[in-house]
Amino acid sequence: MKVAIAGYDVEGRATYDYARQVWPAAEIVIADERRITDVPPGVVDVLTGPDAFAQLGDADIVMRTPGLAPWRIETDGTVWSATNEFFARCPAPIIGVTGTKGKGTTVSLIAAMLQALGRTVHVVGNIGQPALAQLGQISPDDVVVYELSSFQLWDAERSPQVAVVLMIEPDHLDKHVNFAEYVDAKANIRRHQRPGDVCIYHPSNPYAAQIAESLDTDVARGSLGTPPPAYRYGTPDDGMVYVKDGAFWQGERRLCAT
């Protein structure tokens, strides 16, 4: 079996370490447009230069780094990602957070609240360690809070059990084809949810609402016939907790500073 790591950045290095553990007999190839000076042991080939990602035709699996668009990879094998691999193998429930701004703050708040309840929490993604670097430390009773960018969600084939969708605005249009494609990538946080999962989304942002409605209904309904629900997070009108003037509020009561 031949495994290609497309993009040898921080996550690419974590993917190499993971691949060595999970597929010890695999031939590993590294591809990156930049020059690689720290080639790890056991790598059978290193491809660099502007056409590096077009030379992976004989790889069985290509593990892409988040910032690399899937369609830039030319291969006869399977294009996969650390996000897909983590979702497929993680033994604990995952709370995924996406949005244009505020992901890191929201992830930190969720993690702090869960830790205050005595839960063991693993923060992964942009704000934490690469997800695959932590996978071996996670037990079924833990909780994972995953900061998910559009790059990590680009080709995601699974969704987290809890999807949190913050405000969506145009961003990363130097990487995405257009804004619609950016929103569609983000929608994978909700698209593959199953019965028992839940989505919490920004109530006044039309793109967050669009994502909340982007279920694959055949998957979502399953045998129960009921799709996983989507809930708006708090607004001044519904009595729930919301943010105003740099503080958390419930109704007219100021709770604390953000």
Task: Tag the structure with descriptive keywords.
258 residues; globular; UDP-N-acetylmuramoyl-L-alanine:D-glutamate ligase; five-stranded parallel β-sheet; six-stranded parallel β-sheet; 9 helices; 2 domains; alpha/beta; Rossmann fold
Itemize the secondary structure elements and their pairings.
Blueprint (H helix, E strand, L loop, with lengths): L1 E5 L3 H13 L4 E6 L10 E6 L12 E4 L13 E4 H8 L4 E5 L4 H14 L4 E5 L5 H4 L8 E5 L2 H4 L8 E4 L13 H8 L1 H4 L6 E4 L4 H7 L4 H5 L8 E3 L8 E4 L2 E4 L2 E5 L1
Parallel strand pairs: 1-2, 1-4, 2-3, 4-5, 6-8, 6-9, 7-8, 9-10, 10-11
Antiparallel strand pairs: 12-13, 13-14
Beta content comes to 15-25%
CATH architecture of the largest domain: 3-Layer(aba) Sandwich
Counted up, domains total: 2
Q: Based on Cα principal axes, name the global outline.
A: globular
Output the CATH homologous superfamily of the largest domain. Answer: Mur-like, catalytic domain
Helical residue percent band:
25-40%
> Which spans of ≥5 residues are poorly predicted at pLDDT below 50?
219-224
Q: Within the CATH hierarchy, at the fold level, what is the topology of the largest domain?
A: UDP-N-acetylmuramoyl-L-alanine:D-glutamate ligase
Q: How many DSSP-defined strands?
A: 14
Query: How big is the Rg?
Result: 20 Å
Please summarize the sheet with the most strands. Answer: 6 strands, parallel
Distance between the termini: 50 Å
Task: Walk me through this protein's architecture.
By secondary structure, this protein is an alpha/beta fold. It has two domains: 2-76, NAD(P)-binding Rossmann-like Domain (Rossmann fold, 3-Layer(aba) Sandwich), CATH 3.40.50; 85-257, Mur-like, catalytic domain (UDP-N-acetylmuramoyl-L-alanine:D-glutamate ligase, 3-Layer(aba) Sandwich). The chain has helices at residues 10-22, 82-89, 103-116, 131-134, 150-153, 179-186, 188-191, 206-212, 217-221, and strands at 2-6, 27-32, 43-48, 61-64, 78-81, 94-98, 121-125, 143-147, 162-165, 198-201, 230-232, 241-244, 247-250, 253-257. The longest helix has 14 residues, at 103-116.
